[in-house]
Model the fold of this input.
Amino acid sequence: MLTATARAHTNIALVKYWGKRDGLPDQNLPDVGSLSLTLAELFTETKVEPAAADALELDGAPAQASVAQRAFRHLDRVWSQSPQRDRSRPGCRVVSSNHVPTAAGLASSASGFAALTLAAATSFGLDPDRAALSALARRGSGSAARSMWGGFVRLDRGVLPDGSDCRARPLHTADHWDVRLVVARATARAKTVGSTEGMTRSRETSAYYPAWVDTSAADLDAAEQALAARDLTALGRVVERSCFKMHACMLASEPPLIYWNATSLNLVQAVFEARQMGLEGYLTSDAGPHIKVLCRREDAAAWADRLRHVERVVDVAVLRPGPDATVTFETAAR
Ligand code: PMV
Done:
C-alpha cells in the first residue's frame, strides 16, 4: 500500500440527476443520466496512507462517525477491486480538505468521493482506468462519477439491470468553452433534507417522478448538441427546463421537498428580469436554496453585480470550467 494524495474538482449539473433506481443500493444507480460542468475554484484534496486503524480527518478535525463510516465503506469498495483483494483491507488514515471559497454554496460530496476514490485506488495499486474509477466514485455519490474529469461530462443512465453500462464520459475539456457560473448564495445555513433521502421520497411519492424520468434522455441529447455548438441560448433552455422539472418533482413529493427560500425566488425573478433587459444567462439550482447562472465570460461581472443586489443574498462567486481529477503525490509506504 502506498501513500497517495488526489485532487478532484466539484461540478454543477447542467442537466440534473435526481432519483436512484430501485434494487442494488450499493451500486447507487441513477434513474436518469446527467450532464455537468466541472469547476476550477472548488476542489477537495485527499490523502490515503497506511495506519493501524481507520481514521478520517476532515478539514483539520476528526470527522463525525456517520461521515467516517461512509468513507471507510467506500475504501472497502475500492479495495475489493484491487489486486490484493483476497487479503483483508489494511487500516487507512484519510486526511481530506475542501478548498471551497465561502461564497461557493456547492456541495462537496462530488469532489470528496472522486478524490477519495482516486487516492485510494492509487494507494491500493488499482488499474488507473478513469471510466472504472468513475463507476467506483458513483457508488460513493452519484455526482462524484462526473468529477473524475474536467470540462463537460455526461453520465449515462444505461439500460442493463446490473448497471455495468451506467458510465460517465468526458464530452469536452475545459477549454472547449470558457463559460462562467455565477453562484448566488441564498442562505448561510446547511440544507435540511439530504439528497439520498430526498431522492427516495421523490421516487416513492411524487406523481411527477415518472414524467421527470421519461423526459430526461431528450434533455441530455439536446444539451449535448447545444454544448458541441457552443450555443448558449439552446443550452440555457435545456438547463432551466431540467432544473424546473427537478424542482417540480421535488415539490410534488409527500411531504413536499421545498429546497428554495424567499431569496431563491427573488433571485429567479431577478434572472428573468435581467434577461428581458438583454443580459443573457440561464439559471440552475440543486437540492438547496442557492441559484447559479450560466453565462458568457464577458457577462459574468454584470451578472454578479445584478445578483449581489437582490435582497438578503449572502454572497456571490464567479466560477470557471475546471480540470480533471489528478494524483498530486504518491510514495512507497514505510
Ligand atoms: O450525488 P449527489 O448525492 O451529490 O446528488 C446530486 C443531486 C443534485 O445535485 C441535485 C443534481 C446533480 O446532478 O448534481
User: Anything to note?
Assistant: The pocket of PMV is lined by residues 13, 16-18, 34, 107, 109-110, 141-143, 195, 286-287 (CB under 6 Å). DSSP finds nine helices and twelve strands in the chain. Residues 131 and 168 are 7 Å apart (CA to CA).
